[in-house]
TrEMBL record:
InterPro entries according to UniProt: DNA-bd_dom_put_sf (IPR009061), MerR-type_HTH_dom (IPR000551), MerR_fam (IPR047057)
UniProt-recorded name of the protein: MerR family transcriptional regulator
Protein source organism: Amycolatopsis vastitatis
CDD domains: HTH_MerR-like
PANTHER family: HTH MERR-TYPE DOMAIN-CONTAINING PROTEIN (PTHR30204:SF89), REDOX-CYCLING DRUG-SENSING TRANSCRIPTIONAL ACTIVATOR SOXR (PTHR30204)
Keywords: DNA-binding
Superkingdom per UniProt: Bacteria
One MF term in the entry's GO annotations: DNA binding
Pfam families referenced in this protein's UniProt entry, alphabetically: MerR_1
Domain HTH merR-type: start-end pairs: 1-74
């Protein structure tokens, strides 16, 4: 298959995958397609399944590419299993807000500037909150609208997550530290990738995008582990 045919097969399960992403994964040694005499990539069915494994491991398990590559290398050498990882729930609360079920088109390529946008009314409906609750979330920086006043679908997830936490007596004002910590992480990531984004080479931009995803996944893992360790300390475990 050509790289375009591979992209068409993957888009159903991974709407944000791009040709640049596939090329990046090839450059990182996660997939090694053949080449025609004229130099065009030629993917086999096994290459597509390998890409599915990589993309699912990133999306569902937040695994860094280094760890995924180690697993694939172990499977290639006969020291591990190439079976896909089980897919756990992807949300912290029992909801599934996607572009499809909120009535929005799926963006084919976020890197090209296509974004999913929600009006305030759509956000309130999907999150199951009222305007007063949204105002409180905005007051403490937990939900932010864009310059035109629209919200992205992640704002729905944030609102629903905070709503679930309020059932345990946690109020939005108690969560300002989460917003501050996230902003500090964003600032740190910006310092690392901004020099790369300044290059005009499209491949350099794709690499910078992937670095951001990798660092974000690592920061999520670190945050989870630190919170888990702290809770164990409180409970005496």
């Amino acid at each position: 298959m050509s790289i375009g045919a591979v992209l068409a097969q993957l888009r159903g399960d991974f709407p944000d995958v791009t040709i640049s992403k596939i090329r990046f994964l090839e450059a990182e040694g996660l997939v090694q397609p053949g080449r025609t005499p004229s130099g065009y990539r030629q993917f086999a069915a096994a290459d597509v399944e390998r890409l599915r494994f990589v993309l699912a491991a990133q999306r569902d398990h937040y695994l860094p590419l280094k760890v995924i590559k180690e697993q694939l290398d172990a499977a290639d050498s006969g020291n591990g299993s190439a079976a896909p990882l089980p897919r756990p729930p992807r949300r912290l609360v029992p909801i599934d807000v996607t572009a499809e079920n909120v009535g929005l088109p799926v963006a084919d390529d976020f890197a090209a500037g296509k974004e999913l946008r929600l009006t305030q009314e759509e956000l309130l409906e999907q999150a199951g909150i009222d305007a007063a609750a949204l105002a409180e979330l905005q007051q403490y920086g937990l939900v932010r609208s864009g310059p035109a006043g629209f919200f992205d679908p992640d704002a729905v997830l944030v609102a629903r997550t905070v709503k679930a936490m309020t059932e345990f007596g946690i109020e939005p004002r108690h969560l300002r530290a989460f917003r501050a910590a996230a902003d500090r992480e964003v600032g740190l990531l910006e310092q690392i990738v901004t020099p790369v984004y300044r290059h005009r080479d499209p491949e350099a931009k794709a690499r910078a995008d992937e670095v951001v995803r990798e660092l974000a996944a690592l920061s999520v893992t670190l945050h989870t582990l630190l919170v888990k360790a702290g809770i164990r300390g409180v409970s005496g475990c």
